[in-house]
Amino acid sequence: MSQCKQSPQEFIKDVFTPQIAVMCTPAAEKCCEKNNLDFTELLQPFSKLTNDTTYKDPSGATTLIKNLKLSFIDFNLRPPQTVLAKKLLNSSVSEAAEPKTKLHEVKDYKLEIPASTPWFESWRDTFMKVQYPSDHEFTKHYLACLIVVSSNDNNPVEAVIHLVQNLNQMQNSNSTGKLPKWFSANTLKYYVILHDNTDGNSTIANEAFNSIKSSYGIANCFLLRMNSRPPGASNNEHLPDPWSQFLNGKIDTKSYQVTPECSPGPTRHLSLEIGQEANENKSLNYHPLSPEVEDLTLDHDTDKEEQLSKRKKSWSHGCCLSVDDIEQIKSMIYEFASACLLPYIEKQLASLYDSISYKKGMSKTLFSATKRWFSTNKSGTSVVAINNLIYSTDSPELQIRRLGDLYFMFGNYNSAFQAYHTAKRDYNADQAWLYYAGALEMAALSAFMINESSRKTYDYMEESITTYLNTCKMPQFATRATILSSECLKSKQLYGEAAHQLIRMTSEDSDLRSALLLEQASYCFILSNMLRKYAFHMVLSGHRFSKAAQKKHSLRCYRQAYEIYENTGWNLAADHIHYTIGRQANNLQKYDEAVESFSKLLTKDSKQTNQQQGTFLKEYLTILQSKLQKDGLDEIPELPVPELNNSTLKVLVGPTRPLSTPGKIPAMGISFDSCEDSAAESRWHKLEEMIISEVNGASPLIFKPMITLYTTSTLEKNIPIAIINEPIQISIEFSNPLQTVLLLKDIYLMWSYESESNSITNKVLNEHVDKYIKTFITKSVIIQGNCKQDMVLSLTPLVTGKLTITAICYTLSGSTATTENIIVKGKKIINISTNASIVKPITVEIVPYAPRLQITFSEINLELLAGELQKVSVQLQNTGSVPLKNVLFATSVPLLLESELKVNHKEYTFADSENPQLREKLARKNHIITLPLPNNQLENGQNISFDIWLRAPHQKGPASIDLLTYYENINPKSTPKYRLIRHSWNLSVQESISIDVSPQTSYNSTTEEELALALKATNLNKITNAISTEITLLKVCLLSNNWVLTKDMVTPQYIILNSQESAHILTKAKRDVRENSQYSYISLTTDKISIPYLTTALLSFARKSDKALLNVFESAQEFRKIKDGSLILEWKALVYDALNRRVVNGHTCIPIEVNRSDMMQLERFISNSMVDLNSAVDTADRAVERAQSQVFYNLLHPSIVKHNFKITKSCVVPVTLVLHSIVKNAIQVTVNTVDRKNKQTNTTKTFKSNSLSLSASNHFCWLSNGKILRILHPLTTTTVQLSVIVANPGTFDLGANLAVFCNRLQKDVNPILQLCEVHSALIVIDSNS
User: Fold this and answer.
1) What is the pLDDT of residues 775-806, one digit of tens each?
2) CA angle, 348 then 350 then 352, to 5°
3) What's the topology of domain 671-705+850-989?
4) Which residue, 556, 500, 507, is CA-closest to 533?
5) pTM value?
6) Which listed CATH number (3.30.390.30, 3.90.226.10, 2.60.40.10, 3.50.30.60) goes with 643-653+713-847?
7) pLDDT by residue (tens digit) across 968-981?
8) What angle do CA 135, 136, 137 make, to 5 degrees?
9) Exposed e or buried b per residue across 112-151, where buried means at least 16 C-beta atoms within 10 angstroms of its C-beta
10) Contact by Cβ (8 Å): 53, 337
């Protein structure tokens, strides 16, 4: 807490110092004026004795006085009138020096508070001095009078006699209430003769002194020699100026002219405080913490407070005094005090004591006793009666009071307490409440001075204050008692009681007094660790300071209070504090602080209304405008609104996307939204890496993708590279934290440009600046309340060099209205650093011209059916100033994009997938297309065109087909070496058609293996869909290197499928082994009209689907399975809705795999469902299973044979065994014709048809029991002629006694039994029956 310069004891002594009057002749005053002082001022620095003095009380006890201080006051000086007194009080506060601050730690707070409160000390000192002396106390009455004459007077002795006569005449004619007031009728007189050592006559001085000494006694006279140094003499002695500190605090009523209209009167509104507050709306009834204070105006431009100035000298004081002269002054004061004053005091004490003792022995009169008995108490007594009670001058009650005051002023506090204690009982009995309150006050102070304060003495002071305030209605004495009491209580650490007394003295009659006492109360609270009360009362103090026109102190109080309210969430209180600080700082022309405070009102934490925030914004802009005018600087200030979100800042370098034309769309390129999809960005970077690897012939050791869109994270590590004549675009996000609308005008980027020869900035826009960097200005933007606004600002560099983008400049308008609008030009700093303590602008390197490829595509409908094909025309044009070369395209979905450029797609094998380098190289061939250029380069202005095909994927939903274009500068040493263009088709895929294929091996093939294909095509479009489709099937195609379609087909002539309709198609394929896949088809319509380029595109996509193409965007486990071919169904569809109709073409591809199992579906289900509890889990090796499935075979014979068993006992039937190799290596086949006893069976893998096994018989024999060997080449067919003999009619299963074994030539030692079994039934009928 702030500390006073004086201790409470020292302060109390200074308040109640003995008063000494001074009467001077004009010649004496003239002698003092050589030193720029009057006589009282001359004595003031030395009025406190440095030596201890003593005196004896009436009992004979010696009292020691340490550092006795005397107050020398001009005889003619009168206390100022009420208005002037208030002026002086105001001046004492406003002109007090600003103290240093100190850090005070309380709880978790570190508060910066003043180390002292000189304004309060100055005010209380002034308050004590401006009080009129009262008849109920004698501490302000003169004890003695100094009669001062000069040796330069015509007759110093007569001058002394004349002054004494005037003094006696004044004392004799003095009546109650007139000034000055004397302690007693027998006033002590002390005679001083001033002798000017330079101008005076020493003889006359000595003679006059001797004469006076003989008349009045040596103890009552003094010859003061001074002015030993003539005016203008060289200053050989270094003397300090001890008078300055006293003159600064001296009340000089001559400097204040009291006009008739401000003379004392009953109307309180004429006081200075009220006069200074005339601009305030006194009828306002609001709480000080309310932010709704728009009506409270404290404009320093209207009715400025009257500047009260003290008398100030332009020269030093005591310039004619030597060291000896000063010692003479000290000696005079000491001699007066010790030899004259203290003996006089001893006599006065003895006289008063005797008088009191004598009169106390006499009985009181009957009137006095009756008055005590029948009088009313003080609560019901009228104010007039209380304050008009007057004791006679020699009454014992006043004599006791005089005795107590003398004891108190001269340090005998024990005797003073006894006297006051006795007097207060008499005053209480007499109901002299003013005297009673005074006695209580002094009794409490006496107890404090002897360090014997107790609860009872504290109650004395409390009762004194309440009696002054409530009973006597004399707030000036209550205020004095409160000031003294609070100092006593604080010294005893009773801060709560001190604060209570100080707060009680606040009222509406004096804003200045209330402000000062509230401030002192708040300091008491902070010492009690009551921080909220401290802050609250500091706000109240600041409010009262504001009403008293003490703007400087009001500002300080609000500052201190904010240290507590900061970050508490009490937004309305904080807003009030910020608003008041801003207004007061503005009134004091502290524009920096005012701007800072108002800026804190313009944040998202503000809970004010829309209108109030609008008012705050207008006032902020007005104050900021005043600040800028005062500073006169060209610097553009940083404004608090709108807020700039630097973390979302993005920089895009490169050409802008050209405008779309009907039927054509330009390549998308990179936009500010590109970096939001990390998966897409990763895909683009992978395509770029593939192109770089393809161009260089090998993958780079360290790949860094080209960056044209920079975020704050990439800007910290990379310097953007911009090209001449290509824009630099910056995306920013402004947010409006207020509820009111913000209007921004003339928004542009601030930059500085540096090159080897120039350094330019665009703080001032002009044509010269535009020759280097073209700055584009956004005319106006409106940001709604609590909303965000994205903006794109751009620059176009015209020369090479280094460009630094530092801020965003704009003009903020105080209102959207056009009338009475306040506009201020401000800026927001751009900072790309993640470290808040470092400000890092955007730095861009500008390089020379480069090629600029512009790509346009023909416009297509992006709502496609699954499998639909769309033709896209592509046009490339070099719009740059430099030729380009090496144009390459890359896509991440090679199955969905095909061009008319000749591309040899590489098919991979499983062995290729094991080699990462080979796998990467093969993949690049599938993803990358090279565009041939005329003369291997594209000149500036030259263009080239070609077509590409897009195919919609077979899955419903959103899909994207991306295309990355790469091209290089013709100069390999240029920067950048290459450039990229991105484009994506974002498709919406609808369901089209689904195909189910069931391929089955034909058992009737004789010369070659045949395949039966059963197709089911279904239109997946739903009736409830917004789009309807009518699909016409055109062709069934097969792409395979093992099979070709035959003309055998069962199907309607025209197949048109509406929503949810299906069609079944049966066709057949035969074995035809080729090195490459061959294309065969069967037309489903008789229409001969076909589109050649469509057929080519369909076939190209079909071949892509058939090949095992490596895609780096698929994992290594996503290899396509080995299949027998791809079945393709070509179709066209009529797509229509309520508004549009269109015809589209497409195809659906599905892989086919031949299922050679001889089990029927039911038997397969049953076999897969059977669980052998005794067997282990089937863990047969896949290689063994493949070895058991190398040959597929079937038997050809008549199904029914008639034979006459009477003629021939046995029947011989010729049988042809057809063997089909289904592996891609040569094998040796062994056919074993055995009887049923030797038949080897595999019960775990073979299942017979239940119907055939129950009726057929295996009682037959092959004519050639033994082994038949055949060599089968890969995927070929051969036959073996066999004969079977039966002895009786019946049904025979010819496959029962037949086993086929295979082994690879020169590899397998033991033939392996094939799992393929034939259920061929032969029915023999006896023709004789």
Assistant:
1) 999 999 999 999 999 999 999 999 999 999 99
2) 65
3) Immunoglobulin-like (2.60.40)
4) 500
5) 0.71
6) 2.60.40.10
7) 999 988 889 999 99
8) 90
9) ebbebbbbbbbbbbbbbbbeebbebbbbbbbbbbbbbbbb
10) yes
